[in-house]
Amino acid sequence: MAHEQTVREYRTEELAEAAGIPVRTLRFYRERKLLPPPRREGRIAWYDDHHLARLRTIAALLERGHTLGGIAELTAAFENGRDVGQLSELLGMGWSEETPVRLSPEALADYFEGEVTPENLAASLALGYVATDGDEIVHVSRRLLDASSALVREGVPLAAVLETGRQVRAHADAMAALFADLVGAHLADGDAALKRLRPLAKSVVEAELTMAMDRLLAAGATGTAGAAGGTDSAGGAGTGGAGTASGGPRGDQPSS
């Protein structure tokens, strides 16, 4: 028989003590809407472990140089994002071979130091790269997370990585449709054949991309491929945050 999990609740003073902050600071965060409203019982405000987790996230992001204003914007984007319940949709209804990664907001900030802006978070949510699960963020692909963070460490702005990801998504969808048409036109078992033969599609795409990169390198065409290939010039949701660091003075934090 399953046991219900007990929800820990805190009065204002108890929550402040657990978070290691003054009550004044807690009330300031609540006024700035950095915390969800507490449960009210008469004149008593009751908080729970989600409020405690949010306070610890705020403290961790402040330590990383984020301002309270920036944290408020990140929180708004986070709360308006897709729920983890939509992961089956994002990952292809259970067909995906990708490995999701669970991250705290501060761990995500560590992956992309100085680049986790509200614009970039909103773009990642819109692309379906990340979803929310309570106080955690779920990135839908370990490989995409590692590749994008590696590009950022090399000096490529995260906004540019996300915009390129948006364009790659469109080409990848077109290639997947080509392979599906090929299989559907010649094999009778439809989706079963597509699932069985998907490694072949991946091999073809990887080989063709490798040869395309070889041709670019041989031609010395680094930086000119977009002009030659006529890439999409429309700005995506992530372009607004290019190179924008969210660090800065924390002048809006109250003194303790």
Automatic annotation (TrEMBL):
Coiled coil: none annotated. InterPro entries: DNA-bd_dom_put_sf, MerR-type_HTH_dom, MerR_fam. Residues 226-250 have a biased composition (Gly residues). Keywords: DNA-binding. Residues 9-77 form the HTH merR-type domain. Residues 224-256 are annotated as: Disordered. SMART domains: HTH_MERR (SM00422). PANTHER family: HTH MERR-TYPE DOMAIN-CONTAINING PROTEIN, REDOX-CYCLING DRUG-SENSING TRANSCRIPTIONAL ACTIVATOR SOXR. This is MerR family transcriptional regulator. The lineage of its organism: Bacteria, Bacillati, Actinomycetota, Actinomycetes, Kitasatosporales.
